[in-house]
Amino acid sequence: MNKNILLITGGTGGHVIPAQNLANYLIDKNINCRIIVDKRGYKYINNFKGKVHIINSSNLSGNLILKITGFVNLILGFLQSFIIILIFKPTRVISFGSYASFFPMLSCAILKPFYKIKLFIHEQNSVIGRTNSFFLKFTNKLLLNFDISSKIKSKYKNKIFVVGSPQRNTVNYLKKHKHYNDKFTIFIFGGSQGSEFISKFSLKLIKCIDKEKIINSKFIIQCPKHMIKNITNDIGKLRSEIIINDFFSNIDEVLQSSSLVISRSGAGSIGDIINNKIPSILIPLPTSKDNHQYYNALILEKHDVAIILDQNIEEINKAKKYIYEIYNNTNKVKKIYDEFDKIKVKNPNSLIYSLIIDER
């Protein structure tokens, strides 16, 4: 079999990072694997072992001029991806969704009968995205991060496989209760793009906790780069230990040392929380398409390992109460760890590899 595999992704880190993780795994299996990504998504490519093709794309937002420019970029992206597929001749194509994947997938759908391309879709979220939904009829298999098969039309049931989200590497996740670290470490994480709201909300929360002096806490803040200076100046007089950056290259180490996470609820963040068994305060992005971040967060709330806050209501006291409860109640912490053990953690890279290679 010609082992040329193409991964299509773009837009946000939640789509790009899992694609890169899987691509590196496939390359380690001696498969010729490449990635198509848009210019926006390319910034999330880091330490990829293969070749990256960058194409034009757009989500058609903004005023009329920006929409016209965006439409031109989409057409260019379609032509670019069409040529890439003609030259590379992949036998397997895996799309990770987002608007940036639409025209590359359209190219694949057009060329599929001529090149016998097997198409696969990976859905990260608890609500299937619009691009992925559109191409379901053309795909051989639908690979899901979460079991959302009940939300998918019955005629596609035989295509569904729940595999989880491709991981960076094999990590020996800590089993100990991170609650008992020397300091109660709270990781404030706005996702791959950062979050102004979470950064501002958490700053108010930190000030309250610091003033009340109930817990010995350490805060690690990942926030948008343009906010770092102002936040640093604002927290200068606080007694708590605070580390702030727009990006942490040692994200696995940070997660494993965290006692609690305050985060958005993108699929990647939910996966990291599950793998590292961290109690969390989740603030879904209210503008996420089809409200998928809220439904992602529900997965953890239903297991009683997280609480959900409404961005439109400043729930500082609710967040503070939960933090103090986690800090003081060792029985609750133990119960949370037991609940995390009930959430099945798969080996996504290996599962996806077997599913796409064995496809006839």
Give a written overview of the molecule.
With 360 residues, the protein is α/β, with parallel strands linked by helices. The protein folds into two domains: 4-166 and 345-357, Rossmann fold (3-Layer(aba) Sandwich), CATH 3.40.50; 178-328, Rossmann fold. The chain is built from 13 helices and 13 strands. The protein has helices spanning 13-28, 39-42, 64-88, 102-115, 130-134, 196-212, 228-234, 251-256, 267-276, 292-301, 316-328, 330-342, 348-357, and strands at 4-8, 32-38, 51-55, 92-95, 118-123, 141-144, 160-162, 184-189, 217-222, 241-245, 260-263, 280-282, 306-308. The strands form two sheets. It has a seven-stranded parallel sheet, sandwiched between helices. Strands 10-9-8-11-12-13 form a six-stranded parallel sheet, sandwiched between helices. The protein is globular, with a radius of gyration of 21 Å. The termini are close together.
